[in-house]
Design goal:
The protein is α/β, with parallel strands linked by helices. It has 12 helices and 13 strands. The strands form 3 sheets. Strands 3-4-7-8-9-10-12-13 form an 8-stranded parallel beta barrel, surrounded by 5 helices. It has a 3-stranded antiparallel β-sheet with strand order 5-6-11, with no helix packed on it. It binds flavin mononucleotide.
Length: 342
């Protein structure tokens, strides 16, 4: 048992009477307030060098922070100190928006899972651009995840994403196009052939653009999406977002299963890995993949790399296992590399 699971996590999980969003806000505030010295101490404990290159970008290690944890980039310098080899901020939208009503974030503890229906609560693309301008370089690659503003009709989605892209691309090492959140009505229809082709046609050309996909797509739908990605020159795929399925929940968590939103964590592990494998096979490795979904230990990370992921990201695993998971996942990659070399 790590210090995190024995001492830190119980405190965080009790905050605000067990309100998961309170714990999230508290953690972000604390991380944002860390000075340079504690960050250096943390870095010496958690940062594992395991360099890798993907879509033309060099990463100090292949374990990233998934989108949604630090939507507005308030705690950016803390993430590399906790060992992350890259950070994806956002999802941000062209217009600031409050997201859905609270409560909108739920822990399913026995299942090591989370259900969220945050709905892209964020301060908007311009605020993030200002924050990034002030902050300067992060020291690790930065991905910026873009979504559609809720008030923007689907027919005007391309212009909405473009507005965010124009404001933010100077700060990004890659852009993630989020067309797979289940919490913005209609968003997932942007994964369809013609809508995605139009969106990628507008966004591809500058910084590497990766498409984040839903785990609820069928294989034929993914195959079609991959064709569009390849034809449009997308740099890669991020697989996967949260699922609308409710399989694999522990009995104690069944009452929570009825909450609307996307499910993440352990119940998603196998589905996400299968999709990564499918994408890898279907493209013959031509589209680099960021594997995300249900990585809770070093073995999950290793298997995600084996399935074809060039990089991985953590969200729910970080909630349940803390920064030791970042280190363990990076070590899993480094060790596999050593074994592969003669
Ligand atoms: C509370 C919460 C908020 C999220 N917000 C976003 C988001 O804004 N954009 C996005 O692309 N994914 C978002 N995600 C999805 C994660 O980035 C990730 O794809 C998903 O949770 C699966 O990984 P995990 O099982 O490690 O959590 C969110 C997930 C959670 C739990």
């Amino acid at each position: 048992m790590s210090l995190f699971t024995s001492a830190v996590r119980p405190v965080l999980f009790r905050l605000g009477g067990g309100d998961a969003e309170k714990a999230h806000e508290f953690t972000l505030e604390r991380l944002a307030s860390l000075g340079a010295r504690p960050r250096a101490l943390l870095r010496s404990r958690y940062a594992v060098p395991a360099p890798v290159e993907a879509f033309g970008v060099r990463f100090p290690n292949p374990v990233g922070l998934a989108a949604g944890m630090d939507k507005n980039g308030v705690a950016l310098p803390a993430w590399p100190a906790l060992g992350f080899g890259f950070v994806e901020v956002g999802t941000v939208t062209a217009k600031p928006q409050p997201g859905n009503d609270q409560p909108r974030l739920f822990r399913l503890r026995d299942s090591e899972a989370v259900i969220n229906r945050m709905g892209f609560n964020n301060a908007g693309a311009a605020a993030l651009a200002a924050r990034l301008a002030e902050l300067g370089p992060l020291g690790v690659p930065l991905g910026i995840s873009l979504g559609k503003s809720k008030v923007t009709p689907l027919e005007e989605a391309v212009e909405d994403y473009l507005t965010s892209y124009r404001l933010l691309h100077p700060y990004a090492d890659y852009i993630a196009v989020n067309v797979s959140s289940p919490n913005t009505p209609g968003l997932r229809t942007l994964q369809d052939r013609s809508a995605l082709a139009a969106l990628l046609g507008a966004l591809v050309g500058g910084k590497p653009v990766l498409v984040k996909i839903a785990p609820d797509l069928t294989e034929p739908a993914i195959a079609e999406l991959l064709e569009v990605c390849l034809a449009a020159g997308a740099a890669g795929v991020i697989a996967t977002n949260t699922t609308l399925a409710r399989d694999g929940l522990a009995a104690a968590d069944q009452p929570r299963a009825a909450e609307a939103g996307g499910l993440s964590g352990r119940p998603l592990t196998e589905r996400a890995r299968k999709i990564v494998h499918f994408v890898h096979e279907e493209t013959g490795g031509r589209l680099p993949i960021i594997g995300v979904g249900g990585i809770l230990d070093a073995d999950d990370a290793a298997r995600m790399f084996d399935a074809g992921a060039a990089l991985v990201q953590l969200y729910t695993g970080f909630i349940y296992r803390g920064p030791a998971l970042v280190r363990a996942a990076a070590k899993a990659y480094a060790t596999a590399g050593e074994k592969a070399r003669p």
